[in-house]
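Our preliminary data section would be incomplete without showing what the modeling component actually yields. Below, a chain of 451 amino acids is followed by its predicted structure, encoded as C-alpha cells that our downstream tools consume directly.
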Amino acid sequence: MKKSLVIVLTVIMLIVACGIAGADQEPRKMETAADADEFIAALLGDHPEEMEGIWAFSPQMKAALAMYGGIGGLAKQLAPLGKPERIEPAYEGTIQGYKAFYIPCVFSAMSSDLILAVQDGEIAGLSPGAYSGGKKEEIAESDAFDSIELALPVPSLGELPGILTVPKGDGPFPAVVLIHGSGASDKDEAIGSLKPFRDIAEGLAEKGIAVYRFDKRSYVFGLQLAADKHMTLMNESVEDAVNAVQLLAKQEKIDPDRIFVLGHSLGGNAVPAISRELEKAPVKACGLIMMAASPRPLDVLMREQYAYLYSLVPEVTEEQQAEKEMTFAELDKLKDPDSLSEDDSVLGVYSAYWKWLMDYDILQAAKEITVPVLLLQGEEDYQVTMEDFSIWKDAVGEKENWHLISYPGLTHPFTAGQKSDGSAVYSREAKMDSTVINDIADFISSSVPAP
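Predicted structure:
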C-alpha cells in the first residue's frame, strides 16, 4: 500500500488530518478553487504546522491525526515529491464520489496533481494523482476502437467507474481485465506523468483486443476502507477482478471463452489468487499476464526499495535518516505478526492486510495454474528486480504453460530508463514500450485459437 519516499510499488491514498480548532476560531470551509489554492500553498510552504485549527476537516480526517502527527506531519509525507517549483491554479472535479479540487504541482522530483476531497465543506482526503497540467482528460476517441463507460458493481459499497476499450468491428473479440498495483489507483493506474493502463488498453485495442479497466476499490471507496480493520488484498483487488471477468463475459462483442487477466506490480502478485477464485466462478480466465510481479513478501520488497532510494541521495539529512529509521521500525513489527492485534497497523495499514499477504503462498498458487501465463519483467526495475525474476524462473520457468520475458532498459512501469533514475521515471512524459504491448498481444493471439 502506500508510503513516503514516493512509489513503493505504485501510489496510494493519503488520508490527511488536522488538529481541532481552538474555541476562539471557527474552522474555515473548503468551498472554492481559491480556497484550495490557499490551502496547498500553505501546506507546501515553510511552516505548514501554522495551519493547525484553520480549516474544517471531516471526523475521519481528524481521527487520522495520530497517524501523521498533524498537518506538519502530512506535509512531510509529500516531501519525496521534491521541492515545490510551481503550483498551478486549482480546478474543480470529483473523486470517490466527493467534490474535489485538483491542484497541479511541479516538484523537483516529479510533477503531480494534489487532489483535495471535500464533503460538506470539510476536507475529507488528500491524494497525489497524475499530473494534469490543469487539463481534465476526456475519454479517448479513435478510428481503431470505441471507449465505452462500464461500471463494475461492488456489493454493499456501490460501483467502480470503468472503461471498456473495444476494437471497431463486429467481434467477438478476446478481452483483458486490468488489475492495479498497490495503492489507490484510478482506471489508468496513473502516477506522475504516466498512464500505463491507458497505454495497454489503447495499444491492445488497436490490435483487435478489448480491454476493461476500472478505478480501484481503494480509490473510489478509500475513506470507507481506511476504517475497515479486516480489509485484505482479497477485498481490495481479487474479488473485483473475478467480478470484472464475469461482467466482461456478458458484454456485446466480447468472446466469453477468450478473457484474460493482467495484473501489474501488486496486481501481478494477486494474479495466482485471482486464478484460484476464478476456478470457482462461472466464467474463468483462459490466460493470465503478470507484469513486474514479485514472489517475495511485500515488507521485504519495501525495505529493499527504501534502502535503494536512500542510497541515491547524495547526503542524507538528519530528518531523512530519522524518517528511514521510523519506516524500518514499522516494518520490524512484521517480524512477529502474531503479536499484532486487529487494531494494530503497520505504516498506516491494519494488521489483517499484512497477515493475509504473509499467509499467501504465491509460488504454490502459481504452480497450480494450468492456463497459459505470461510473466514480464523490466531489467531496470528497482521496485521488483531481476532477483524476483530469477526466483520465478527457478519455480515455474520449466512449466510448459509459462512464458517469461525480461526487457533490457525498461523500468517498473515498462518505460525506458535506468534503475538509478529512481522515482524520477514517473515524472517523465512517456508511454509503455511498444514491444511489451506487442508481446502481450502475441501471447493473447497464440493462447487461444480464434473462433
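The chain has two domains: 33-129, 145-298+351-447. The first strand starts at residue 84 and ends at 87. Preliminary results of this kind motivate Aim 1 of the renewal.
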